[in-house]
Amino acid sequence: MTISVLYIDDEPDLLELCKVFLEMNGEFNVDTLLSANKALIHLKSVYYDAIISDYQMPEMDGIQFLKEVRARFRDIPFILFTGRGREEVVIQALNNGADFYLQKGGQPDVQFAELAHKIRQAVGRRNADKRLVESETRFRELTENSLDTIMLFDRNLRFVYVNPNAEKQMGISTDHFIGKTYSDLGFPEKLVDLLEHALNTVFISGKTNRIEFFLPTGFWIDWLLVPVHGLDGDINQIITSGRDVTERKKTEEQVRLAEFSIEHSGIVTFWLDENAKVVRANQAACDSLGYSKDEFANLHVYDFDPNYPPEKWKSIWDQIAKEKYVVIQSNHRRKDNYVFPVEITSSYFEYEGKNLIFSFVRNISDQKQLLNY
C-alpha cells in the first residue's frame, strides 16, 4: 500500500528533490507545499499518512506548525526535517509530539533513504497504536456489555481488569478489584484455594480450564479460564468468563430430588419407549417383579405383562399417545412366573426429543380378593 506524505519546506528545489527520491520505487506518494499556513488549509480536505516539515520557514516555523497539527489533526506522524541542528530545537520538537527529528545534509541518497526509513517507522508505529486502540475498544465494548463476568489476571493472580458485571455477582465495586488478589479481597480461604489453583493450572499447563463454584453472594458460577500469550509466546495473563448458572443448578437439584424421590418411593414406576423397551425402572419395580436393575435394562414390557404382547404393543402405544393419560388394569408376571393383578396409570410425554410413557403401577391383589367374596 502506498504511503501518502505531505512535505512542507520553503525551498522549492529541496521539495522537488525529496519528492523524486521518495517516489522512486513507488512506495510513497508525496505532495509538496511551500508554507505551513497553506498546509493547515490543505489538511482540512486531504488525509496523509505522514507529514515532513522544515523548521525555519517564514510566517510559521516547524515547531509552531507541529503544535497546530497536533491540536487540529492529533496523531498524524510528523517528522521535523531541518538544517537547524540546535539541541533546543530537537527537544522542542520531541516535547511537542514529533515522531522523529532528522537533520539535513550529507549524501542525498543516504539522507533520503534515512528519511524514508523514519517515515516507515512512524507510520508503522502509528498503525500499530491505532490497531491496539481499536482492539482495546472492541474488547471493552464486548466485555462491558457482556452478561458474563469478564476478568483479566496477571501472573501474580492479581486482577488487571473486571467488567461491570463483577460487582453484581460478587458485591464488590469494580474499582476495588484492580491490583488485588481474591485473598486480598477477603474471599473465604477454601474458595481462594480453589480459584487460585484453577488459575495456576492454566499458567503451568497453558491449556484452557473450567470449573464451577459457589459464591458467598449466593451465585453459582461456571468459570472458563483461557491463557493469554504475549509477543514472546509466554503466558502473561489469563482472561476468565464467569457465567451465572444459579438457575441451572436449582433445576438440577430439583431433578436430582425428583429422581431420588421416585427411586426410593414405594410406588412401582417404569419408563417405556415406543418399542416397548424398559428405559428405566425404580427399586420398587425391581422388588415387585424380582428383577435386578441390570436385568430390567434388557426387558420389554411384554416380558412381564402377558396382556401387552408384541403384536398389540403399537395399538396400545398409539392409544396412550392419543389420550396422553390412561388408567388400565392388567397382570404382571414376576421372574418366578407368579402372576398378580395391577392397575397401571400411564402418561405420554416427550423428553429431550424422545417419546416415552411413564407408568405408575399398583398391586391390586387385595382389591380383587375382596371383590371375589
Describe the structure.
It is a single chain. The chain has 373 residues and is of the alpha/beta class. It has three domains: 3-142, Rossmann fold (3-Layer(aba) Sandwich), CATH 3.40.50.2300; 146-245, 2-Layer Sandwich (Beta-Lactamase), CATH 3.30.450.20; 264-372, PAS domain (Beta-Lactamase), CATH 3.30.450.20. It is built from twelve helices and 15 strands. The chain has a five-stranded parallel sheet with strand order 2-1-3-4-5, sandwiched between helices. Strand 6 (149-154) and strand 7 form a beta hairpin.
Helix-strand sequence: EHEHEHEHEHEEHHEEEHEEHHHEEEH
Q: In terms of quaternary structure, what is this?
A: single chain
* Largest sheet strand order: 2-1-3-4-5
Q: What global shape is seen?
A: elongated
Question: Would you report the number of β strands?
Answer: 15
Primary descriptors:
single chain, 373 residues, alpha/beta, Rossmann fold, Beta-Lactamase, 3 domains, 5-stranded parallel beta sheet, 5-stranded antiparallel beta sheet, 12 helices
Question: Secondary-structure blueprint of this entry?
Answer:
Elements: E1 3-8, H1 12-22, E2 28-33, H2 36-42, E3 50-53, H3 62-73, E4 78-82, H4 87-95, E5 100-103, H5 108-144, E6 149-154, E7 159-162, H6 165-170, H7 189-205, E8 209-214, E9 220-229, E10 235-244, H8 246-263, E11 268-273, E12 278-281, H9 283-289, H10 293-296, H11 310-323, E13 325-333, E14 339-351, E15 354-363, H12 365-372
Parallel strand pairs: 1-2, 1-3, 3-4, 4-5
Antiparallel strand pairs: 6-7, 6-10, 8-9, 9-10, 11-12, 11-15, 13-14, 14-15
